[in-house]
Amino acid sequence: NFMLTQPHSVSESPGKTVTISCTRSSGSIASNYVQWYQQRPGSSPTTVIYEHNQRPPGVPDRFSGSIASSSNSASLTVSGLKTEDEADYYCQSYDSSNRVVFGGGTKLTVL
Amino acid sequence: QVQLVESGGGLVKPGGSLRLSCAASGFTFSDHYISWIRQAPGKGLEWVSYISSSGGTRDYADSVKGRFTISRDNARSSLYLQMNSLRAEDTAVYYCAREARITMVQGVIVRPFHFDYWGQGTLVTVSS
Predict the structure, then answer these.
(1) Cβ–Cβ of A47/B119 closer than 8 Å?
(2) Non-local CB neighbours of B66 within 8 Å, separated by 6+ positions
(3) Cβ–Cβ of B113/A105 closer than 8 Å?
(4) Residues of A with CB below 8 A from B118's CB?
(5) Residues in CB range of A9: below 8 A, 6 or more apart
(6) Residue B103 pLDDT class (50, 70, 90 cuts)
(7) What is residue B104's predicted lDDT score, i.e. its pLDDT?
(8) Angle at Cα A18 formed by Cα A17 and Cα A23, nearest 5°?
(9) From the list A47, A90, A93, which residue is nearest B44 (CB)?
(10) Residues of chain A with pLDDT under 50
(11) What span, in angstroms and rounded, lies between the C-alpha atoms of A79 and B76?
């Protein structure tokens, strides 16, 4: 089994770009797809990125995902920040036993 | 439109039992794997259990194995979670979440492990 580690919080100003990292503790980040979910206060999670870098219909292209083997991590980048992007973001993957693994979540503040 | 509606949450004493339900609509329920995922108050997401589209395969997080049982009724488009021997640490909002459709690659099932729809959640509180 492995863990996915995210920063507890990040903050940035409207219009700027922020990147949230998700580091896999063991095994290659490229071995299993990574998804990213957005959870606004009081709401259920919704997908912003799936399969490392795919955007579901309706998700703005301001959201992008990538992986980096050098740091064994996935990243979610949000550009042109808007106040509505303020939310918790979770990365998610799965292990060789087909068990789902979530990162601890990152609180994005747009100030 | 796809809908997942959980019910059955409430206040239960430690050691007690509760049965959660998730009613699905707007899609072919029997085509999808479904999971229960929980979120303790102020905490992150924790995967609890999944069941395959036919119900023939299921798995649990170590934290609930032996206490929780997942099941489904494809004729009723419903998912269930029987929770026994409940503990204070089981207190959480419980979501049912649909996995995106599986694909077949050269006869092998490829699970997407991507939760494309979530219910609104039902709160389970375990307290004396």
Answers:
(1) no
(2) none
(3) no
(4) 44-46
(5) A106, A107, A108, A109
(6) confident
(7) 82
(8) 150
(9) A90
(10) none
(11) 43
